[in-house]
Specification:
The complex is a heterodimer of chains A (215) and B (476). Chain A is α/β, with parallel strands linked by helices. In chain A, 31% of the residues lie in helices and 18% in strands. The longest helix of chain B has 17 residues. Classes of the chains: A alpha/beta (215), B alpha/beta (476). Chains A and B meet through α4, α6, α7 and α8 of A and α3, α4, α6, β8 and α11 of B.
């Protein structure tokens, strides 16, 4: 996982509540067996429309297609962002498009955790702060913010415009680019001990000693 | 010591009990290493996880904890010809290869036990009370109906569970939703689920585990409880729960993966404790009287945009909140619905009876009761029944339900996710309007430009016959 410390970048606004993972990356792009190539299909049905000869062309009415938001790395969004399915393709698509941070008043739980595991920082700010940021982005071409993970704050230039919470463990993983599996395997002996205790209490939860499942 | 005295003075919720039994290690910030008893695997969210294991040369931690089945991409007709779409085929073949290479138990497409992963797990008894259960699919909440802690995970977590049998998680808050009273004939678990979502909103359960309780939940069959827990994620909660009772235990007895003999007796006695203590406190409580609840129909592009079938499409102009009004306006534009339209005046083009929400035998029976002796209306272009598993299909055929449907003009298909999310060939054309027993009415969910109205199996069946939504209570 890529390390995350501070991101200073252009902000793009997506002014809709309940943006679901089907909208972020539609199902026809979930058939891939690899982890790459999702960025070009981010928000596919909003971002493109039918052109000549069955080709799709960028939809000029979609906000991310506006010239002023090209190269954005911070997405400003509304409540319950990422609701719906558990597809990790959603944070993959957002990251591969170029976003490093999503700021919203709230996120769906699974999306929030999937993002953290991919070095994409979901920042929860109070509704009023998010409203103010939407107004600022609208009013200012080239509006940029700095998202500072060590300080857990969002700044406009030197001025702090919001503070956010994050679990210390998750923060540490992001700052150091650590993944969960490596961390967990350091505790393999404890997992084995747990299994020994649990097998004594609830043997039906385990297959037979030879590893064959019950059936 | 605090925790010890806490235990003496305050009862535990079912969620507390399940959580506590699975903590391997707790970190200072409350993050826990949580042990996972069962992982269910399907073809869409697992290939990158297996690829990760291969790249790191990591073996499975515990082979017998996993069970795999392809469901999202599988065709629901002419299956003998294989999968026509090469990308879908590759994904299913990749699952087959991964399961073979890593020694994961798999029900292949040709196996009659194949079906939607959330139908197959319980049907096989691979879902048991007291387990932690995960799957790379948000509707894993379904399995909470058995008093198991079950929730959807992303692909990185699928890989982590394959490699370590654990997840790193923080405990959620608790919410109890009490559904009290006896609903009218024709009002089922799906209506209860939609009513809860309408009441608390699609983010109402965010950060919480919802326990469904109350007399209406106790009276539900396991199929009904699965429908209810399935939709917990649509209320924002990763996990839904129902306490274990006689209904749970009767359902599981004799299932292939369930324990037998002395082990069964030992398990049942442990499962009896899987209920919230009488003095347990929840972070949030919601109560809904379902006695007068009408069948529910969604009219928008979020499951919270739901109303009684007796109601009318709401007017965005009456909403005080500007963001909510604009969101409703956009939804009605997409759905091509005018404010004030009576739900019963909305005509439908397509009927889909299926999905992990409503494709179990009881769902098919409820739909068949309505369809029996009637015909699909002339304006309905396609009406599909897609059983949740090969075994559900077999059971339905033994009861003659397939003939009830086909004689009425429905298509009788093979098991899979099908038109719930249209990853296979079953999908809506742009502009088509569908009465669907699935779980999500998002834009394009059932096919680009398709319009979804979420309803119960009985309501979908009645809409098929009438050609528009009707209050199915009047047909009972």
């Amino acid at each position: 996982m890529e390390r995350f410390e501070r991101v200073e970048g252009l902000v793009a606004p997506l002014d809709r509540v309940n943006v679901d993972t089907d909208a972020i990356i539609p199902k026809q792009f979930l058939k891939a067996v690899g982890r790459s190539g999702f960025g070009e299909n981010l928000f596919y049905h909003w971002r493109y429309r039918e052109g000549a000869a069955g080709h799709v062309v960028p939809n000029p009415d979609f906000v991310l297609n506006e010239a002023r938001y090209q190269g954005a790395s911070i997405l400003l969004a509304r409540a319950n962002f990422g609701c719906g399915s558990s597809r990790e393709h959603a944070p993959w698509a957002l990251s591969q498009y170029g976003f490093r941070v999503i700021i919203a008043p709230s996120f769906a739980d699974i999306f929030y955790h999937n993002s953290l595991k991919n070095g994409l920082l979901p920042v929860v700010l109070p509704e009023a702060d998010v409203d103010a940021l939407f107004r600022a982005v609208e009013a200012t071409a080239g509006y940029t913010l700095t998202v500072d993970l060590p300080a857990q704050c969002v700044r406009e230039g030197e001025r702090e415009v919001g503070r956010f919470a994050i679990d210390p463990f998750r923060k540490d993983c992001l700052l150091n680019g650590l993944d969960d599996i490596g961390w967990t395997l350091q505790h393999a002996a404890e997992i084995r001990d747990y299994e020994t205790r649990r097998r004594a209490e609830a043997p039906w939860l385990f297959g037979r000693e030879d590893g064959v499942p019950h059936e | 010591m605090g925790a010890f005295f806490g235990d003496l003075t305050l009862g535990k919720t079912l969620y507390d009990k399940l959580w506590d039994a699975h903590v391997v290690r707790e970190l200072p910030d409350g993050t826990c290493l949580l042990y996972i008893d069962r992982q269910l695997i399907h073809e869409v969210t697992s290939p990158q996880a297996f690829a990760g294991l291969r790249a790191a040369k990591r073996p499975l931690w515990r082979q017998d904890a996993n069970l795999a089945v392809a469901d999202h991409n599988v065709p629901t007709k002419d299956r003998a010809q294989g999968i026509a779409d090469p990308t879908s085929r590759l994904q299913v073949e990749t699952l087959d290869d991964n399961c073979r290479d890593f020694g994961v138990r798999l029900f292949s497409m040709a196996d009659k036990r194949q079906g939607i992963v959330h139908v197959v797990g319980p049907e096989q008894g691979a879902t048991l009370p007291g387990m932690t259960i995960v799957c790379g699919d948000s509707h894993t909440s379904t399995h909470g109906a058995f008093g198991a802690l079950a929730h959807g995970i992303g692909t990185s977590e699928v890989e982590q569970v394959l490699a370590t049998q654990c997840l790193l998680q923080k405990k959620a808050r608790t919410m109890r939703v009490r559904l009290e009273g006896t609903p009218a004939a024709g009002v089922g678990a799906k209506d209860l689920a939609l009513a809860v979502i309408g009441h608390i909103g699609t983010a109402g359960g965010t950060g919480h585990t919802i326990e469904f309780a109350g007399s209406a939940v106790a009276a539900l069959s396991m199929e009904g409880r699965m429908t209810l827990c399935n939709m917990a994620i649509e209320a924002g909660a990763r996990a839904g729960l129902v306490a274990v009772d006689d209904t749970t235990i009767a359902y599981l007895a004799g299932r292939p993966f369930a324990p037998r003999g002395a082990l069964w007796d030992q398990a049942v006695s442990a499962w009896r404790d899987l209920r919230s203590d009488a003095d347990a406190r929840f972070d949030k409580e919601v109560a809904i009287d379902v006695t007068t609840l009408a069948p529910q129909v969604t009219y928008g592009t979020s499951p919270e945009m739901v109303a009684a079938v007796t109601a009318r499409v709401p007017d965005p102009g009456t909403l005080a909140d500007a963001v909510a009004a604009e969101s409703l306006r956009a939804a009605l534009r997409y759905m091509d619905l005018a404010p004030g339209t009576a739900m019963t005046d909305i005509p439908v083009d397509v009927i889909f009876i299926g999905s992990c929400t409503n494709a179990r035998i009881e769902d098919l029976r409820a739909a068949a009761r309505i369809v029996q002796g009637r015909r699909v209306a002339a304006n309905v272009r396609r009406a599909l029944v897609v059983p949740g598993s090969g075994l559900v299909k077999e059971a339905a055929e033994a009861e003659g339900l397939d003939r009830v449907f086909t004689e009425a003009g429905f298509e009788w298909r093979d098991a899979g996710c099908s038109m719930c999310l249209a990853m296979n060939a079953d999908r809506l054309e742009p502009g088509e309007r569908c009465a669907s027993t699935s779980n999500r009415n998002f834009e394009g969910r059932q096919g680009a430009g398709g319009r979804t109205h979420l309803v119960s199996p009985a309501m979908a069946a009645a809409a098929a016959v009438a050609g528009h939504f009707v209050d199915v209570r009047t047909w009972m």
